[in-house]
Design goal:
alpha/beta; binds calcium ion; 14% strand; Alkaline Phosphatase, subunit A; 16 helices; 19 strands; 4-stranded antiparallel beta sheet; 2 domains; 33% helix; globular
Length: 516
Amino acid sequence: MRRVLPLKMCPDRRRGRSDRSVATHCLSKIESIQLALDPAMYKILLTLFLPLLALSLAQAYNRPNVLLISIDDLNDWTGGLGGHPQARTPNIDRLAERGTLFANAHCQSPVCNPSRASLMTGRHPHTSGVYFLGPDLEQAPLLADLDTLPERFAKNGYQTLAAGKLFHTKDARFFQEYGGSMGGFGPRPKEKISQPHGHPLWDWGQFPDKDEEMPDFKIASWAVEKLETMPADSETPFFMGVGFYRPHVPMFAPKKWFDFFPLDEIQLPEVKDDDRDDLSDYSIALTNEEHVSPEHEWVVSAGQWEHAVQSYLASIAFADHCLGMVLDALDASPHRENTIVVLFSDHGFHLGEKQRWAKRTIWEDGDRVPLIFAAPGFPAGQKTAKPAQLLDIFPTLLELTGLPEDSTQEGHSLVPLLKNPQAEWPHVSLSSFGRGNYAVRSEHFRYIRYLDGSEEFYDHRKDPHEWTNLAESDDQALQATIQEHRQHLPKEEAEVLPGSSTGHNAYEAASRLVKE
Ligand SMILES: [Ca+2]
Ligand SMILES: [Ca+2]
């Protein structure tokens, strides 16, 4: 007599076939066994295994698609996060209305490469040693052999495809199908528009003429076409990545996006002139020396502050429009009811706050990011202030899609918060910028400890701009709270893997202030 294999043991599963095709295949095998068995024995076997088979088939057929959308260098200037009163993000806001907005979400590193390497592998920078713009995750010994997020889904029967920037570079390595970067950071004019000196990408203004010339428009159009043409009754669910490049510099967008923000009506970020007086020399050096972004003093004296803020707002509005194209296509497609949508940015961005520009700080302006999960079957229109991390995305998606749990992941599944945004949540968010420099963000506080031992502590209930450093407060209750936050600092820290980058240079420059 031949033995009937439970579905989990069906050998076809090991040949990389989708759950759905495996289930169908196993069903046909069971049917063929009927012919070889005594009818009574067949009935007993059927009674034993049919419920299991039915469950497995239902799981395979119902496994949801994943649409993972990234917006590069977008800080909290969105409707739901309230980072800037003039931010225009109707599509980010409508996505938030469909799911849960994590209003206290933070990157693990305020630079593209380490942030995305961490998100895509589920490992902190202090585990991998990838703290800065280099090395690439494939050059990091601890990351090289791990599944990245799309690879894990591919191994579990998903069709994976992407266009634009999901990883820091070379996305084609990690997706089965890659539509291209479509021109990446986009076309540039023959001469710079606003910042004549400095890094070639550092510029802002109205350019080019039409949306159709923008890479993000092409990336959105690629996704629209895929959503329109992928059959709903496909055997395999999809994992689609859509990575937008704006508002990353150059902060260029066509004129019509600037017209929403007349220059003479621009509201500048709230900045306190003496904000840096309560910071350590190390803190200031790490976040300013050797950086490629323009100096705040130059931006102000050149009369460019309003124009740069306008350009960032216009770039966000344009990226949001491209997001809207994709959401419209999803809604018009048969995939709407069976697709989990996740939206994130890889880190924050300063536009003059703490007298500086761009990323590369572990303050709220450098770390806070939009993070939205809209998953079928979960409550909509929710917002939570519990601390969330970008490296929570990986385990959350495993749980939402019913893929096997991965205990090596360093993040936490956010599913309890998708069910109840007020759920008990013992976790904090941890960010770093170089070995020894960490920020611990809890529901109400940010604690920072730098390599030289200097500390900062901010109470977000009273001080959303992090103007008042309370680290040396005499208040005993507050000191006890600070001590609680210190407990979350990593106990083990990987060495900084070598590379050539702004982060490496700033870290090196600040190290002169560390006493032996
Ligand atoms: Ca970025
Ligand atoms: Ca201050």
